[in-house]
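In pairs, describe these two lines:
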Amino acid sequence: MKKYIYLLIILSGFVFLNSCSDDDEQGPGNPVIEPKTEFGSAMFGDSLPFSMAVSDDVPLSTLKVRLYFSDELVSEEVIRTKTNGEYSGKIYIPYYANIPDGTAILKFVLQNTSLTISEKSYELSLTRPDFPYLTLVSGETEYRMERTGLYQYEAKETFPMKVPGYIKAPAVGNYGNEISFGWEDNAITQGSVSTIPFSNFPGEYAIEFNTYNYEASPFIVAYTVNGTVMERIDDSNYKVEMNLTKGQEITVDGIDNFSDWWIDQDFFTKDADGNLTFAPIDGKYRITANFDLQYLRVEAMIGSSLATLQSDGTGAIWIIGDNIGKPSVATNLVGWNTASGLCLAPVGGKKYQITVVAGKSITAESINFKFFHQRDWGGEFGGDDITTTSDIVFIGNGTNGRDSGNLGIVEGKSLEKDATYVFTVDLSAGNDNAVLTVVKK
C-alpha cells in the first residue's frame, strides 16, 4: 500500500513539473492583426462591419474593437479568438446630441494567452445622417415629420391639446439603424420610446424637432389654476402650489372636458354654472390634476412641504388605510400605501373633515383606516387619542376587532349605500383628545 502511495506522489510531481515546463516554453508570442476591411467614413448611428485576420504562435485570447470620440471610449465589441483565422462583427457608432461631424479613432486590440498585446488604429470620418423624414408615433397614430432644413423637421396637423409620442428616424446608408427619440429625466434623448409630452392649445399647429441639438416644440403646458401654470409631474399628473383663501373663486383653464371631472366637495363648491369656490381655510395648498382619474387632488402645505399636524392642532390630518379612496374606492383605493394618503380639509377651529359617499368613496359594510399626523408613517391617532359618539363607526382599541386607532363599522350596521357622510376630527381639546363625528348629510 505504501509503495502505491509513493508511486502516486512521484507521478503527480512529474505531471506538475511537466506542466510548468510547458508554460515556460510558451513564450510571449507575437499577435498579428491583418485587416480585411477598409475603413474610411461612416455615420453616427451606424453598425459598422469589420473583418480581421488574426494569428500567433501562442494561443490567442480576445480581439477588442473600440471606438473613441475625442479620446473617450464610446463603444466596444469583444470577440473571443480561440484559433488563428478571420473574425467579423459590427461595432455601433453612437448617435448623440450636439456632436458635429468629425474624426473618430477605431482601435483593434488583439491579446494572446500570455497577455501580449498588438494594436492597430484607424481614423474614421463621421458625419450626422441627414434623414429624409421622421415619424412621430403617438399611440396607434403615426405622423410624418417633413424635413424643413438641415436637421430640422415638423409635422403640421390639427392636433389635440396633448400629443404624447416618441420620434423615430429611418435607417439611412448601408449600415444605418432606425433611431428613436423619447423622453427621459425631463429631456429628449436617443434610444428611448417613452413619450415626449408635446402640448399646445388644440387646433392646427406644428410639432418640431431638431436631430442635432434635440430642441423640440411645442411644450405649452396649457393647464392653469387661477392663471398659474401647472408643473408637469408625468404624462398623467400636473401640479401647482399656491396660497388660497376661503371663498376664493377657482378658475381652471386648458383642460379638455373639465366640466366632466369629479369635484372634491371638501375643497371646492360648485354652482349651477360650474364655477368653483375654494372651501377650506386660508393657506398654502398643492393642487394636482390627475388626468387618469379626472379629479383635482388637494393637499395642505406648510412652506415647501406637505403639511403635518402641529402641536397646537393646526396643520393637517391624513388618512391611510383600507376601504376609502377618492374619487372612488374602485379606482383609487388608498390602502396602506402612504403615498396615496388622503388629506382632510382644514375647515377652521382646529377641525378637519372628509366627505365620502357610501358604496363609492367608502365601503358601506366595512372600514379599516386611521388618522395620521403626516402623509407617512410616524405620528398617528391611537385608540387613546381619539373618541367618537357615533353609533355606526367605532374606534379600535386592539381588542375590539380593530387595531388601536383604526376605524371600523359597528357589528350589525352599515353605511347607507349612496348616502353622503362627513367625517370630522375636532382637535380643539388637544391632539391627544381628538373627537370624531360622523354625520349623514
Summary: Confidence is low (pLDDT under 50) at residues 1-23. The chain has three domains: 32-127, 133-217, 224-440.
